[in-house]
Amino acid sequence: MTQQVYWEDVQEGTHLTPLPKIASTQMLVKWAAGSADFNPLHYEDTFAAAQGIGKPIVHGQLKRAWLVQLVTDWMGEAGTLTKFACQFRGMDYPRQMATMVDVKDGETHMCKGHVIKKYVEGDNHLVDCEIWVENQKGEKTTPGNATVALPSRR
Amino acid sequence: MLSEKTLKLIGKSGEVKMLEVEKGAIKKYADAVGETNLLYWDNEYAENSRYGAMIAPPGFFGWPTRWHGAMPFHEELQVDLISALGADGYTRILDGGIAFEFFRPVRAGDTLASLTRIVSVVEKETKGGSMSVSQIEASYTNQNGDMVAKATKTMIIR
């Protein structure tokens, strides 16, 4: 576990610790199996091509799950996620496997964010964060926002 | 113009769907996402945390979508709405995003009841033609009767 972040430690503009993600085809298979989202759009080349998408894409809900992890990892165990939202604006593509365990070279997606507002509501010390998944071109394919209650030193 | 059939769906709820939050499902989720937080992996660690038990990550809502038929939203109710809007000429589904509010932690072993409701369906005129915007809301209540989370989905169909 990383060191606990306190409300007093953050300001507007404070960055959330970036979370890199490699969307391997293996990760997509795991997500499909667990979530039971078996849309061939996420694993079949010819189907994706016929749908006009070109090639298989990363599940939007998986990208949402990455963003939740970005926030919960950053806020630490004493933090509480109270609100979360995201939109699926752009498609992202998985990397194929080179071996049974290794992933081929290619794009790494970055989950990023920063604090945009810091305030107190009742007993809660809150921060609003802007968050997003960024592709290698620097495009925000999955923008969102989150509200977190942080522990206070007071 | 929205048909009578579509308008009748506004305010409609699906039947309550139940989900038992299993440890195995939490671990499968954590494994697929790449979550390393011990709260989702290590019983003993989680029991000694402020939660007192293994918890489900907030991202767990919306995870076992098809198995349950209602995570995060009641599937048949969505299908009814999509088909009614399809008959109104709105066929191209675009994702308008998803939002969550979390009120209480969800622990392994909890049983959640989810209730989905179609909150609103409106038509909007844009430069590219008209489109429909629907809001679907789901609330989740645990076995103690406490609401643990609420999810809202915006569905845009052109």
Corresponding CATH architecture of the largest domain in chain B: Roll
User: The biggest beta sheet of chain B, please?
Assistant: 5 strands, antiparallel
Silhouette of chain A = elongated
Residue ranges of chain B: pLDDT <50 for 5 or more in a row?
A: none
Write out the CATH superfamily name of the largest domain in chain B: Hotdog Thioesterase
Q: How many β strands of chain A by DSSP?
A: 5
Report on the architecture of this protein.
With 154 residues, chain A is an alpha+beta fold. Chain A is built from three helices and five strands, in the order βαααββββ. Helices cover 21% and strands 29% of the residues of chain A. In chain A, a hairpin with a 5-residue loop joins strand 4 and strand 5. Chain A is elongated and about 60 Å long. With 158 residues, chain B is an alpha+beta fold. Chain B has two domains: 4-21 and 64-157, Thiol Ester Dehydrase, Chain A (Roll); 22-60, no CATH class. In chain B, strands 1-3-4-5-2 form a five-stranded antiparallel sheet. The two termini of chain B are 13 Å apart. Chain A binds chain B through residues 1, 21, 27, 30-31, 33-38, 60-62, 64-66, 68-69, 72-73, 77-78, 80-88, 144, and chain B through 25, 28-29, 31-35, 37-39, 49-50, 57-59, 62-67, 95-102. Strand 2 of chain A pairs antiparallel with strand 2 of chain B, so a sheet runs across the interface.
Quick recap of the structure?
The complex is a heterodimer of chains A (154) and B (158). Chain A is of the alpha+beta class.
